[in-house]
Each structure stands twice: as C-alpha cells, then as structure tokens.
Amino acid sequence: MKKKILSVLLCVAMAATMLAGCGSKDAGNSNAGGSNAGGEKTDASSETLVYWSMWEATEPQGQAIQAAVDAYVAETGIKVDVQFKGRTGIREGLQPALDAGTKIDMFDEDIDRVNSAWGKYLMDLETLAKASDYEATANAGLIAACREAGGGTLKSIPYQPNVFAFFYNVDLFEQAGITAAPKTWDELLDACAKLKAAGITPMTMDDAYATCVIGYHLGRYVGEDGVRKIVTEGLWDDPAVLQMAKDIEELASNGYYSEYVGTNVWPQGQNVELAGGQVAMYLNGSWLPNEVKATAGENFRWGCFAYPALNACATNIEGAAPTGTESNNFGAQVFAINKDSQMAEEAFGLIEKITKGEFDQKLAEDSIGIPADTTNTEWPALVSCAKPVMAESLNRFTWAVGVETNADMTPVIKENFIKLMAGTIDAEGFVQAMLAASK
Amino acid sequence: MKKNKGMIVAFLTPAVLFFLVIFVYPILRTILMSFFNIEGVTDAMGLWTFTGIENYVTLLSTSLFRTAMLNLGKIWLFGGIIVMSLSLLFGVIITSGIRFKKFFRAVIYLPNIVSAVALATMWLQYVYNPQYGLFKTFFSALHLDSLASIPWTDGDHKFMALLIAYCFGMVGYHMLIWTSGIERISPDYYEAALIDGANKIHQFRYITLPLLKGVFKTNITMWSVTCVGFFVWSQLFSTVTAETATITPMVYMYMQMFGAGNTMTDRNAGLAASIGVVLSLCVVLVFTLCNLLLKDDDLEF
C-alpha cells in the first residue's frame, strides 16, 4: 500500500512539474519578448528596449543595424534586445505576439504592411518627430507616403528607400547606338528595335515580377485607382486593358522579349539573362544591382529609367487618370513603435541612430541601397543610376500598381500575362481569359 | 485482474490534459472560427463577426479555390499512382536478395534527407532549365528534339514539372514502408511456392500482394496526409505570388491568413479555418474509404 501511495504522489509530482514548467515558460515569454526566458531577463525587461527586426542577423542590413544598435547602447547605456526575425518571422509572428501582450517596443517591415495590416498597434509619431526636427533631413516624398499610409498622420519612419523602374545594361545600349534612355513608349520601341538589329535581346522578365509589368502599364493608362477597379470589379473589357494587351503583344511578336520569358523562374531572368549580359533591360526594384552583383561583376554599368509614358488611350473606368513618369512605385521599409510601449522616446532615439547620418550611410553602402537621410548625398555607385528616377518621382504607386489587390485573381493574371509576354496567347486571348476568370 | 481506479486516473490525467489542451481545443476552436469573419488569427473573440456558413459558400464559389482543390486531387491521384507503383517496385527489388541492397536503399531514400528547398531549386534552376538544363542536354544528346524542347516551367507544363519533382522525393519514403511490410512475410511461403513451381511474378501476385494489404492502407493514409498538407513545394514552384498551375488549398489558406504576396490583400482567418476543416474532412473520408475497401484483418500470418 505504501508503495502505491508513493507512486501516486510521484506521478502527481511529475505532472505538476511538467505543467509548472510550461507555465513559467509562457510567463517568461510574455515578459522578455520570447528571446531568453531566464529570470534575469524578466527583471530587466522594464528597462530593455525590445526591437523585432524583419532582417536576418547575417544579412548586410541586419549587420549594419546591429552596428547602429551597438553604438546606441554604448552612447546611451540603454539596453537593447534586437531579435532578428526575418521576413516570414515578422509576417507570421508579429501580430500574434502583439496580441498576446509580448513586450515589443519597435518593429519594421514594408511601409504598406506596417501601416495597414498592423495599423492598430502603431503609436502616433508626430510629436516625437517634431521634437527632434526629424523631417529636416528626411526624404519628403517618403514621409508624405508614410503619412498617407498612416491615414493622415505619421505612424512610421521610412528607411532603405527603393524605386521600381527599368534597369539596363549601359554597355549593350551603347553597342546598339542608343544614346538616351527612353522616356516614352515610342522611344522604348525604338530602343528595342535598335537592340534587336544589333543582335541583342531587348528585355526579359521573371515570373516573380510579371505582375509589376502589367500593373505599371495599366497604371500609366488609368492610374492606380483605375487598376484596382479593373481587378476587383472585373472590368477587363475596358478598352485600356485591350490596348495594354496589344502593346505587350507587339513587344512579343517583334521578338523584343527573351525567348525564355515564358519559362523563366526567378532569379533566372535577372541572374542569368540580364546580369550575364544576354539581355539589355529588366523591370525591377533598386535592390537589383545588389542582388545580382556576384554574377554581373564589378564592371557592369547600370542604367535606370522610369516606366515610359504611354500615348493617350480611351477608357470607360470612372475616375481613371493617366499617369506619366512622375508616378512610380517607390517605397521603403519603415520603423514603427508599439502604441503600448513605455520606451517610445528611447525607441525613437534608436530609429534616429539607424536612419540618420553615419549608420544610414553604412546601411546604404553595405546593402547597396539608397540612403534615407537627405544629407547623405553619396549613393553607392551601383544604384546611383536610380537617383534621377527617385528625384522625379512625385506620385507614389504601391506594389505592382495595385494589380495584385484581388488575391483570387492574381494567379490568373500572372499566368495569362506571362503567356502574353511569351507570345503563346494574343491580346484578344488575354482579355477573354481574364473575363472568363473574373465571372 | 484487479483494477485500481486511482492508479488509472493518476496515470491518465497528464496525458488526457495535454491531449485536450494541445489537440482537442485547437480543433474545436478552428471549427468555431470557420463560422466567423476574423481579420487577424489572434484577434480576441469580441472582434469576430458571425457569418454562419458564408465562409464555406464563399470557398465553393471561388474558382481559384476550386482550382486549388483540383490540383490537390490530381497530385493525390496521379502522384499517388506514380509513387505507390514505383516505391512498391523498388521495394520488391530491394527485398529480392539483390547485391548492394543497403546502397540502393540509401540512394533511393536520399532525396528525403535533402531539404525541399534545395531539391526544388535543383529541379527549377537546373533540371528544367531551358538553356542548359539536364533534360534539355540529355534529350538533345539523344536527338529527341521534341522532348528536349518541352518548356517545363511555363504555365502549361508547370504542374507536370511540380508533380515529377515531388514524386521523385517521395518514392524513397514509401519504399521503406513497403520494404518493412515485405520483410515481415515469412520466407517459408516463398520457398514453398518455389518448390510448387511458382516464378517471381506468381510469388508477387499470390503471396506478396495479398499480404501487403495492411501496409497498402498505411501507405495510402500517409500519402493522403502529406498530400493534404502540400505547401512547401507549391510555394517553391511559384515565386512571391501563387500560380494557377501550382496552387493548393494550403497555399490558398496561407493567402487568406497572412495576405498574398507584397500587396495588402483582404485577410480572413475564418475562411482559412474553414479550409482547414474541409481538408480534415477529406483525410477522414479517404481513411474511412480505405478501411471499408481494404479489409486486412481476414488474414493471419
């Protein structure tokens, strides 16, 4: 009998320790932000600034940010807990963690995701920005974009700006006798003809960015609001859609697209065809020179021009407004502060450390990106070609000019548009396929 | 045997508690969520909007979801036929007393050890590459130009490309299950059959196959469960945004839960939950059908 009582007691004790073990781990997580669930951490959490980063610790961006954090800690004595979560880590994990009350003072991600998907967790930064005169040396266009995305008030601080435009191989352009980058559709066709005549494939595309091409082209005809209407309301029978499809069909039938455009799986087009010198142009973000630098080599001369302006085209879409080269998809990663943070001033101080002066320059140089601080006028050589495009971008398009707004249609748009570029369907066929799918 | 209720309760309580908290509660919550419209997966219940069976109606009327279900069905059926027959064939060969058995078994199982990301990259960037890919150079060398010029990664062939790559990785796993089943069959049966004049094919048809019924059921169930969770390969075969050729219900579920691609799209964790419920029902259905059609308890060996 004694044995039995003993074993029951032991069993209960075991179950209790197991449950208690889980319990204390949960408690530790909610206090210390999920990194170190140790007792010390919990005590110090009230004065440790917790930053969830969208970068990996091994990426150039992650390393530059770590350097800035180290400098900030050395200067101010404030403890900072940086947790490099990576893109998926932030995208999947941030909201559940915030909902669970995890201590996270600041985080970063894409401008639109932070302001729309996580808008309810953001602190209004107007007062903090005013107090430190932040905007004096910040990119006005991006700050305006942040205000717009934040519903009229500043809830995020942009850094690592980028712009989406045509990037090209200057050597191949010169070889074909093209002296100026195209500004209009006719000039683009002319450049393509010259390249083709010189035996050079004018342009290529990867599956990952195919929707950006159709988005930009439609956006030039009807503006972003018009594009959103087309994809959400199924207005594929609009004359602007047919005109867009005919323009692309013309590129395809003239052989201006690479023969591999239908089969390219990212990063085949950018790494092999463009960086390998087989093709002259590729529509992409200003992160491209950094991504392909290993294959392109040091002597690759980059050029950049905005998606060309198109000739006027009829449309029946209400509120459609054609756009020119002043409208571009530019954006940034942004920092935001948790509205419940007790360390807002300290967090803003760290944001300033990362996005201003020395460390903004370091971030730009290490990642071959664009500086956010306007006093950092030296852009890394590989992306300096994008400077005029960025400077002339007054009106902001969001990603792919809104063509991916309807998630149920995006895969169909992607499939059929790639076929249109590859020449396996024609303009009419494209419109019919889209109409059928949006019923 | 004398039963001691106290002991039973004491030993079962921890397991039951864990089972309830980790297994039953999430299932019930998922089923409940599928009747609501929920923006973020961790939103408090106060933010949920009751919509009845609207999520299920929406799913059935969304052509992209139907495409995803169809893709899943094709992967399950065609992939299943390919994987089951190849793995059974390899399993029979491996257990037939060939030389270097361990070596071949290791080679066939190898793709299971390599990460899916590495495998998919190899298939997409090397094997299927239209410029210098393995298929291109191999078929060109044999002067089979029509095979060499198949555009594996375009919209019309991508599903086939995905299926081949996926099956390649799965054969080894199911082969191991078959092998363990075949090795369980006593060699006495084969010896007796050999004496009676049965050749290898007869032995396979009349001894191996009937005695593998139970293993077959295991294999089908495992295959169905992994198929329903088909996600990583689909993601890898369609960069950034989903594609009609490769989309599966799990990818569609992810899009609804966390948003699709780089653009902010509508999110509905309730809809995602209803996809989870539909998929679970599919597995239960397959499992029940298997149990009804394949009765393995009539044989004792």
List the topology elements.
The complex is a heterodimer of chains A (439) and B (301).
Chain A: H1 2-32, H2 39-44, E1 48-53, H3 60-76, E2 79-84, H4 86-99, E3 106-110, H5 111-117, H6 126-131, H7 140-149, E4 157-169, H8 170-175, H9 185-197, E5 201-204, H10 210-233, H11 239-253, H12 268-274, E6 279-285, H13 288-291, H14 293-296, E7 302-305, E8 327-337, H15 344-355, H16 357-366, H17 387-392, E9 395-397, H18 410-422, H19 427-437
Parallel strand pairs in A: 1-2, 1-3, 5-6, 8-9
Antiparallel strand pairs in A: 3-8, 4-6, 4-7, 4-8
Helix pairs in contact in A: 3-15, 3-16, 11-19, 18-19
Chain B: H1 5-33, E1 36-37, E2 49-50, H2 54-61, H3 63-94, H4 101-109, H5 116-127, H6 134-141, H7 145-148, H8 158-184, H9 187-195, H10 200-211, H11 213-228, H12 232-237, H13 249-258, H14 269-293
Antiparallel strand pairs in B: 1-2
Structural notes for this entry:
The complex is a heterodimer of chains A (439) and B (301). Chain A is α/β, with parallel strands linked by helices and 439 residues long. Chain A folds into 2 domains: 44-162 and 330-382, Periplasmic binding protein-like II (D-Maltodextrin-Binding Protein, domain 2), CATH 3.40.190; 164-329 and 398-437, 3-Layer(aba) Sandwich (D-Maltodextrin-Binding Protein, domain 2), CATH 3.40.190. Chain A contains 19 helices and 9 strands. In chain A, strands 1, 2, 3, 4, 5, 6, 7, 8 and 9 form a 9-stranded mixed beta sheet that branches. In chain A, 53% of the residues are buried. The model of chain A is unreliable at 21-45 (pLDDT under 50). Chain B is mostly helical and 301 residues long. Chain B has a single domain (55-293), classed as MetI-like fold (Orthogonal Bundle), CATH 1.10.3720.10. Helices cover 69% and strands 1% of the residues of chain B. Classes of the chains: A alpha/beta (439), B mainly alpha (301).
